[in-house]
Amino acid sequence: MKLTAEISMYPFNDNYLDPIKWFIHRLDNYPMIQRVTNAMATQVCGDYQDVMAMLATEMQAAHEKWGKAVFVCKFIGGELNLAHSE
Question: I need a labelling partner for 22 at 20 to 30 A (CA). Which of 13, 31, 44, 81 fits?
């Protein structure tokens, strides 16, 4: 089963862009997961287990490296066309 997720990261850090860029860059290390980022959020799509495992690993790594951060995620079962725009 496929999963599409939208993730927003809100670091408790004065220099908030560095943790966000770091997190997004790390998502690119998962070739089996498609990633699209816009000004508001990052969307990822892939196998359900792969996406959930990636998020668990990378959110933990972000907390360990940068300290407190809020992650807001939305999930939809299935594969969405991340290139779609209106």
Answer: 81
Is the separation of the CB atoms in 43 and 33 below 8 Å?
no
Say whether pLDDT at 33 is over 80.
Answer: yes
Q: In this structure, which amino acid lies at residue 6?
A: E
Rounded to 10 deg, the angle between the 17-27 and 48-66 helix axes is: 150
In sequence order, which residues have a C-beta less than 8 Å from that of residue 72 and are 6 or more positions away? 7, 8, 10
- Band of pLDDT at residue 86, cut at 50, 70 and 90: low
**Interatomic CA distance for residues 62 and 70, integer angstroms:** 10
CA distance 5 to 64: 22
Which token pair is 34? 């498609």
Query: Which one has a higher pLDDT value, 83 or 61?
Result: 61
